[in-house]
Design goal:
- It contains 9 helices and no strands.
- The protein is an all-alpha fold.
- Helix 6 packs antiparallel against helix 7, helix 7 runs antiparallel to helix 8 and helix 8 packs antiparallel against helix 9.
- The chain is globular, with a radius of gyration of 17 Å.
- It starts with a helix and ends with a helix.
Length: about 190
């Protein structure tokens, strides 16, 4: 909480606005839109990659939220204040950060699959900015954000070779999507 209190002490209207804009780059709808744009406009394989990294990350994130049920920082410590305009989107439990995980899945997979260093640098910068914005706004703790980064990076690096092999085989893609369906159903039943 000390770090969050320090961030609270440096808040100002300009930074508040910048962080509110930055945090939107981690919106969960983003991985769907980004993945579909990649799929239709750039490269089908990369589109699948972004969609799957987001899909698995969101489901694991929601599973952990429901299982751990850790309250938001201002609920844990009522003397802590958040940027009020961030409260509306900060519903549910705190751990782990869905915005951070989503940003890591989307921008991490873009950085992982591109050779262009400018694309990689911009993707990583957006990812880090989203993670920081969640703490700055006061809606997540550093633990929430670090675990989400770990979840996102795990799927970014684990899915790349799996998708690479599956993409060369029709049966491999069917198996991957069957696993996605089972994973989603198991999470839904939970």
């Amino acid at each position: 909480m000390e770090f969050l209190y320090w961030l609270e002490s440096i808040r100002n209207p300009i930074l508040d606005t910048l962080m509110l804009i930055s945090t939107e780059f981690g919106n969960e709808l983003l991985f769907i839109v980004a993945g579909l744009l990649m799929f239709w406009c750039i490269d089908k394989k990369q589109g699948y990659y972004v969609l799957l990294a987001g899909f698995f990350g969101v489901y694991l994130n929601q599973f952990l939220k429901i299982t751990c049920r850790i309250p938001r920082p201002w609920v844990k410590d009522p003397s802590f204040t958040i940027v009020e305009s961030a409260r509306e989107a900060a519903t549910g439990y705190s751990f782990p950060s869905g915005h951070t995980q989503c940003a890591t899945g989307v921008y991490g997979s873009i950085a992982r699959s591109h050779r262009n260093w400018i694309v990689r640098t911009v993707s990583v910068a957006i990812l880090v900015t989203v993670a920081f914005s969640r703490m700055y706004l006061g809606v997540h703790t550093p633990l929430d954000v670090l675990v989400s980064l770990g979840i996102g990076l795990f799927f970014v690096f684990a899915l790349y070779p799996i998708l690479d092999k599956a993409f060369t085989s029709h049966l491999g893609m069917l198996a991957l999507f069957a696993f996605c369906t089972l994973f989603g159903l198991a999470n839904l039943l939970f």
